[in-house]
């Protein structure tokens, strides 16, 4: 048995099992990661085709694929989607601390609104053996770690929103110059309808999606999903995941 384990066949089997276990244990993040790469690649291809169509209409030469990938037009389209997604998660992480929705698995139990006690959150002296080190710490470290998810989501949202405003200014000014009009400054662009149209059309869709998920999950089910209640759970059951 020991010789078989040390054989090349055994090593390959062990290695294959390790890869298989990794893929199984990280399937959710890997699947969405691959989906993201495919989607952004498709967006780049379609976006370049649309951009070049406009360039030709304006009597200008089309751009190469590398040039389009580094253009402000592609960057603003990407960042405007990112900032709205992270705004969604930032708001959801913080709002669900205090607000509840009876019957929704996306909500905490009705009586648990608020930050909860140290015992419930396993912080300080109530930390367990496997708890993160900063959960057991006192002072600023525990305070920061206790809000780290929302803080990081909020930071990425602000960063991507700022990136959208900068790349949006550049893309807008390129369009202005093609039409022989004067460019605008960054601060002037922030007051333009172009910027707020891009921003608000994404915000409203994200907020609608979250509200729909919170309400529809009261009455509808998806067997085996942690985003759904068990199929037989009552419609009034709150904070229960399948």
Structure description:
The chain is mainly α and 242 residues long. The protein has 2 domains: 1-70, no CATH class; 72-107 and 149-242, no CATH class. Helix content is 67%, strand content 0%. It has 11 helices and no strands. Helix 5 crosses helix 11. The longest helix has 31 residues, at 27-57. The radius of gyration is 25 Å and the shape is elongated. The two termini are 42 Å apart. The model is unreliable at 1-15 (pLDDT under 50).
Integer average pLDDT: 88
- Terminal CA distance reads 42 Å
| SSE arrangement, N to C | HHHHHHHHHHH
For the biggest sheet, the summary is: none
Number of helices: 11
Number of strands: 0
Characterize the overall form.
elongated
Strand content: under 5%
Record the SSE blueprint:
Layout: H1 2-6, H2 8-25, H3 27-57, H4 65-69, H5 72-98, H6 118-121, H7 133-136, H8 140-146, H9 148-178, H10 186-189, H11 193-219
Helix pairs in contact: 5-9, 5-11
In short:
With 242 residues, the protein is mainly alpha-helical. The protein has helices at residues 2-6, 8-25, 27-57, 65-69, 72-98, 118-121, 133-136, 140-146, 148-178, 186-189, 193-219. 14% of the residues are buried.
């Amino acid at each position: 048995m020991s010789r078989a384990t040390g054989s090349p066949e055994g090593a390959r089997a062990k290695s294959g099992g390790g890869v298989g276990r990794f893929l199984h244990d990280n399937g959710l993040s890997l699947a969405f990661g691959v989906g993201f790469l495919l989607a952004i690649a498709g967006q780049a291809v379609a976006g370049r085709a649309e951009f070049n169509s406009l360039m030709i209409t304006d009597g200008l030469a089309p751009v190469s694929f590398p040039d389009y990938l580094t253009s402000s037009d592609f960057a603003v389209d990407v960042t405007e989607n990112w900032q709205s997604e992270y705004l969604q998660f930032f708001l959801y992480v913080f709002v669900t601390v205090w607000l509840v929705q009876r019957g929704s698995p996306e909500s905490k139990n009705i009586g648990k609104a608020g930050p909860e006690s140290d015992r419930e959150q396993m912080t300080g002296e109530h930390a367990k053996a496997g708890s993160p080190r900063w959960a057991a710490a006192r002072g600023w470290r525990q305070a920061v770690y206790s809000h780290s998810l929302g803080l990081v989501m909020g930071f990425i949202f602000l960063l991507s929103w700022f990136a959208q405003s900068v790349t949006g200014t550049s893309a807008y000014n390129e369009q202005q110059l093609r039409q022989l009009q004067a460019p605008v400054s960054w601060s002037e662009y922030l007051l333009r309808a172009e910027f707020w149209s891009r921003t608000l059309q994404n915000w409203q869709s994200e907020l609608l999606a979250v509200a729909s998920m919170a309400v529809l999950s009261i009455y509808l089910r998806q067997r085996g999903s942690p985003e759904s209640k068990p199929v037989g759970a009552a419609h009034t059951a709150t904070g229960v995941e399948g």
